[in-house]
Amino acid sequence: LADPASPTQRVSGQPKAGFRTVQHQVPLLSLDNAFDAEELRAFDRRVRRGLGALGAPSPYIVELKIDGLTVALTYRNGVLTEAATRGDGLTGEDITANIRTLRSIPLRINSHIPLLIVRGEVYMPKEEFAALNREREETGQPLFANPRNAAAGSLRQLDPKVTASRPLKAFFYDILVAEGSELAVPDIQSQRLEFLAELGLPVNRDYRVCANIEEVIDSCAYWAEQRHKLSYDIDGLVIKLQSIAGRVELGHTAKAPRANIAYKFPAVQEETQVLDIEVNVGRPGAITPLAILRPVVVAGSTISRVALHNEDYIKEKDIRIGDWVLIHKAGDVIPEVVRVLTEKRTGAERQFMMPKNCPVCAQPVFRAEGEAVLRCVNESCIARLRERLIHFASRDAMDIDGLGPAIIGQLVDAQLIKDPADLYQITVEDLLKLERFALKSAQNLVAAIQKSKEAGLDRVIYALGIRHVGKGAARVLAQYFRSMERLQQASEAELQTVPEVGAIMADSICSFFGQAQNQQLIAKLAAAGVNLQMPEADLRPADGGPLPLNGKTLVVTGTLTGFSRSEAEEAIRRAGGKATSSVSKKTDFVVAGAEAGSKLDKAKELGIRILNEAEFVQLLQNKGSVE
């Protein structure tokens, strides 16, 4: 009889053994960044161009970008039923028991909406963070680097009682899903924030509605000065188009919405000294110089190394061994040299020269015309193999639990693997011959390697390490081509018809698959049982005829009730069709949901057949006419 919204349900009784993986119903996208007024104006021009309104200003809302951990909460009939971390945007971790311990988050909202999913940020206030660190120092525990790390670490505790003891709070700012209710969800972002507050969710009121981009820029300047007066950390501002319908119309890239952008504050800068410059051989063979610094604390973390990128970068900034330099965190994340403090030079500084041979295999290095990077082109270079394997096994690629850099180094040194496909031939007996391996740990690693065979085609494509192909592009390629074989056979022209794939990426993909060693690698992966296909479409007619949308081009616009935009586009591809983002004479159908905008108008103007959601579903089920 226990009510799930009862205060007695705030703290779970037993620690968890681990976190369950949650598939997000709507992808939790990241944001593109802007660092100055000109980049904000360029963003505004892109928005107005996309909406066909270059001559008119666009209203925006500026919200504080809370420096915490992103979460998605699910309420069913008004009761909190699930909470998940953002993870990679598609899947996260189930932290429901931990979220229940936060007093600021309601277990029951002021509405019986059948399904509501909201996005927000969990954070730790500055004063509470300082008190927590003082307490940890007194008890001899390691200190948290900053409030964000403290919040993230607290929220991912396996024992909810630990989370309950931490001073966490939250703000919510987005509605991802609202289904099955007559309650109207506002179509304006500022009104949506008030709607969330009326439901009982904590909302940050320090937002500003701006009539145009110049007002946005003024607001950014204001908060750059005032942010330190807040009781919590912010790492920037989020600028959003006020109109939700406009956001739907603009859509998103593989990783970020086109109608939103994050403005990053100028980074904190600190002085330190370049003690030495080393080089590292990365993936694929890039020889990258690395400055070894006198350790210095920058924005809450200790920096002792910073990438110098390439030979031209070092020459342009005139960085020498022994120089004092000013560094910051680019985007509040990546350490970067701002400039050399030439006024502090003594004459003892030394010029650095890039090596003529790979520091690992001693083979000559090569710099391609038009590129700034030196590369080791020796396919047998041990350093290249290590980096390739580290990427292959990484969380965003094949996600092989327990296969980290140290173990990969052991496997390479023992000559047990010469390419990623060799991982699938590793046995328990092989591992027991290596240091620090007992029977159980060897069995667990072999099981994790075998499990990765079903990681999915998109992860395999990303794991291959094709230049210019990131996680988002790999996902798009997998959904479009459905099999590694089809992707291998694709021409540059065909590749460039795929959303998010441009000329440079298409050239890189064709070049990769044109190399004999890569063809052999894929053949070995297939022979080892690695799944190189997306699940077969379940829409093929029983008589073996063509797929229902075979050869047809469709555009999805507006909000559908049964599909997210990406789900609808994937359904089109699975049914043999092509999903594009713009309406033209080559478009066969436009699928129009609620709040469809200029794409619907253009379809009417061109006389293109318009489908409502029910008609779209009928076509997918092969029950409608495609003529």
In short:
The protein has 22 helices and 22 strands. It is globular, with a radius of gyration of 27 Å.
Low-confidence stretches: 13-17, 537-543
**Which geometry do the CA atoms define?**
globular
- Give the fraction of residues assigned to helices: 25-40%
- Structural class comes to alpha+beta
| Distance linking N and C termini | 56 Å
Radius of gyration: 27 Å
In round numbers, the mean pLDDT is 88
Beta-strand content: 15-25%
Number of extended strands: 22
Largest sheet geometry? 7 strands, antiparallel
- If helices are DSSP runs of H or I spanning 4 or more residues, what is the number of helices? 22
Structure overview:
The longest helix is centred in the N-terminal third of the chain and has 14 residues, at 37-50. By secondary structure, this protein is an alpha+beta fold. Mean pLDDT is 88; it is low at 13-17 and 537-543. The protein starts with 20 loop residues before the first strand and ends in a 7-residue tail after the last helix. Helix 10 (382-393) packs across helix 11 and helix 14 crosses helix 15 (471-481). Helices cover 32% and strands 21% of the residues.
